[in-house]
Write a structure and sequence with these properties.
With 88 residues, this protein is mostly helical. The chain has 3 helices and no strands. The protein has one domain. Helix 2 runs antiparallel to helix 3.
Length: 88
Amino acid sequence: MANKRDLKKDINYVLGDIIEAVYVWEYSNSSKDTKKSEAVIDDAIKVFDDLIAQVNAKDVENKKAHFKAINSQLESKGRELIERINKL
């Protein structure tokens, strides 16, 4: 089980890398419309806020299961965002 600090770092690194990938795409495709890429960034920020709020929840009975669920959400939502970047 990851502790709270490591889970927060993972969330930050994964979603930060996704946002950075969008910026790289925007820079290399400057002639294309950026509305879809900006939507990916907005969604990544929303996912970040939601996951950090879940990590900081105080009224959790089973912390191990709670953190595993957050980790799996991070993985699934991260993959969805990466697929959206690949479709740009």
